[in-house]
Specification:
The protein contains 14 helices and twelve strands. It is of the alpha/beta class. Helix 1 packs antiparallel against helix 3 and helix 4 runs parallel beside helix 5. It is globular. It starts with 8 loop residues before the first helix and ends with a helix. It binds pyridoxal-5'-phosphate (PLP). The site of pyridoxal-5'-phosphate has 15 residues, from helix 4.
Length: about 375
């Protein structure tokens, strides 16, 4: 699209990936196809993709300033990246990280596929020291669920060994708040299930890369493993993305209000939100993010109090996952592999409801703990 490079992200998110020719529908077509008439590409959708996937990929690629490949879920995208690690290679993973990624990494280590080192997300010198020796540096920033930041500029500046990859799980920030490829990462990855889709009604994943050779390898991984997105899921992911900028703007404004409310509440032991001045990395957040996101994590006295709050909310839903229009919360310690968390830690994904109503709901739920 002409002039697309000059557009701001909130324009790109609306315009990228749209048909441009006269007489075409404004929206990319929903193409439910496995195969095509022979004689030209595409031939078979697992091998060549479809116009529906391509439209979603074009939009993500435009936002991330790279080329994107869509997958059946965020974890399918993660698996395609991990597959790039050479046999016996070294994977470096943050202490605070999406539990599915931790599981995939540790199971691969058990099968002697690779070796795993864990580092604290915020320990930049440790990441800098590891960067020269790793085959895959996996960063998640802000992290799930503790909202810790990794210093992307500092870590990406370290020369990596030949073929080594720096991957950033950009799910929490979205491409509107953070573009890792611009900061020197090789891969930016999303669970499109979350903010891109934005309505808790699909599973999808996507990776964006700057390098053509890496693009080819990840595309080949999808061809081989068959972790292709569903047609409707890819279409809905793009449909969801069209409103990402306004959804995020509202959700972030709500999150800032709620974080301030929680920080001032006597029953809340700790409130974690990158936009709070009390966040230990607030300065880095200001430098690295274009917005502070819409996840707020907070800690109650113990697991019992947290469980009671989760059972008492009326507007907010007691449910896992995040990034949707409706607010959801859960106590994260209930999940396997999350033993490092304070038992009373609750992750709240702030939606686009009215901020007064959300604060009132939290106030009444806190009064039951
Ligand atoms: C949900 C999530 C994933 C996994 O995505 P799925 O679509 O559930 O497979 C990966 N990373 C982060 C940060 C997530 O929140």
């Amino acid at each position: 699209m002409s002039g697309a490079g000059k557009l701001k992200p909130s324009s790109l998110v609306v315009s990228a990936g749209r048909p441009r020719d006269r007489g075409q529908a404004l929206n990319a077509p929903l193409v439910p196809a496995s195969n095509f008439i022979l004689g030209d590409e595409p031939v078979y959708s697992r091998e060549d993709g479809t116009a529906t996937w391509a439209a979603f990929e074009d939009a993500v690629g435009a936002l991330e300033h790279g080329r994107a490949i869509s997958f059946s879920s965020g974890m399918a995208a993660v698996a395609a990246v991990f597959e790039q690690v050479p046999a016996g290679g070294r994977v470096v993973l943050p202490d605070d990280c999406y539990q599915g990624v931790v599981r995939l990494a540790l199971e691969g280590e058990q099968k002697a596929r690779w070796r795993v080192t864990r580092l604290p997300t915020e320990d930049t010198p440790a990441w800098v020291a590891a960067a020269g020796e790793a085959d895959l540096l996996w960063l998640e920033t802000p992290s799930n669920p503790q909202l810790i930041l990794a210093d992307l500029d500092a870590i990406a500046a370290v020369p990596r060994r030949q073929g080594a990859l720096l991957a950033v799980d950009n799910t929490f920030a979205t491409p509107l708040n953070q573009r890792p490829l611009e900061r020197g990462a090789d891969i930016s990855l999303h669970s499109a299930t979350k903010y891109l889709g934005g309505h808790s009604d699909l599973l999808a994943g996507v990776v964006a890369v700057g390098d053509d050779e890496l693009y080819g390898r990840l595309f080949a991984a999808r061809q081989c493993n068959g972790a292709t997105p569903g047609t409707l899921e890819a279409w809905l992911s793009l449909r969801g993305m069209r409103t990402l900028a306004v959804r995020l703007e509202r959700a972030q404004a709500n999150a800032a209000r709620i974080a301030a409310f929680l920080e001032g509440h006597p029953d809340v032991v700790d409130t974690r939100y990158p936009g709070l001045e009390s966040h230990p990395q607030h300065e880095l957040a200001r430098r690295q993010l274009d917005g502070y996101g819409a996840i707020v994590s907070f800690v109650l006295a113990d697991a019992t109090a947290a469980d009671r709050l989760c059972e008492s909310v009326r507007l907010i839903h007691h449910a896992t996952s995040l990034g949707s229009v409706e607010s959801t919360l859960e106590r994260r310690g209930v999940h396997a592999g999350q033993g490092h968390l304070p038992p009373g830690l609750i992750r709240l994904s702030v939606g686009i409801e009215d901020a007064d109503d959300l604060c009132a709901d939290l106030a009444q739920a806190l009064s039951t703990t």
